[in-house]
Amino acid sequence: EEEEEEVGEEEADDFIWQWKKGKSWVTFSDEDIETLEKMWKMVDGEGSFTATLDSEGASIPFNTNLKSMMQTNMSTNKRRRVQRIVRPPPRATWQFLTDDDEWEDYEEEDADILEGSHETCAELRTKVFSFNKGYNSVYLIRFDEMTQKNMDSGTVRKLRRIPPGEEPPAL
């Protein structure tokens, strides 16, 4: 017998909660997301609820209004915008081999460039890596060889892509 899957049934793992800090969104801790999801379900996604959340190391009661998607710190009365969004799919990790023979992660914006190019290009020439700001060097990425070459200095580094959800291979 085949098991029927509930259509439209959302798992708590499908969503993340974030709060607005300046112009950026900060993702709540996994523990706080679990608490917020539990409360969300208790009130059927309507109205408001109060839950104790971690706030920079302290446990603080926050009231969350689901209509305005505003959260009020019950100790200070300070308010902040919150959002509940679909959890983004896991991402591949891009790394390069340092001079010390250790693998180091690329910055997210650089990993996005590599991820967007690796399936469609055999090689990529670019100046737009975050670590290249102010230097303007051309980098040649050879996806068939998995290397990064600084065309000014001639320095070649190995790079690797770790698929989403996988552990990096041992050195």
Spatially, the strands of the biggest sheet line up as 2-1-6-5-4-3
> What is the count of distinct domains?
2
* Secondary-structure class: mainly beta
- What is the strand content? 35-45%
* Total helical segments: 2
- What composes the largest sheet? 6 strands, antiparallel
Oligomer: single chain
CATH fold-type name of the largest domain: Signal recognition particle alu RNA binding heterodimer, srp9/1
The secondary-structure element order is EEHEEEEEEHEEEE
Global geometry: elongated
Characterization of this structure:
The protein is mainly beta and 171 residues long. The chain has helices at residues 30-42, 108-118, and strands at residues 15-21, 24-27, 48-55, 58-65, 70-73, 79-86, 93-97, 103-105, 123-126, 139-142, 147-150, 156-162. It folds into 2 domains: 12-86, Signal recognition particle alu RNA binding heterodimer, srp9/1; 93-162, Signal recognition particle alu RNA binding heterodimer, srp9/1, CATH 3.30.720.50. Helices cover 14% and strands 39% of the residues. The strands form 2 sheets. The chain has a 6-stranded antiparallel β-sheet with strand order 2-1-6-5-4-3, covered by helices on one side. Strands 8-7-12-11-10-9 form a 6-stranded antiparallel β-sheet, with helices on one face. The longest helix has 13 residues, at 30-42. It starts with 14 loop residues before the first strand and ends in a 9-residue tail after the last strand. The relative contact order is 0.11.
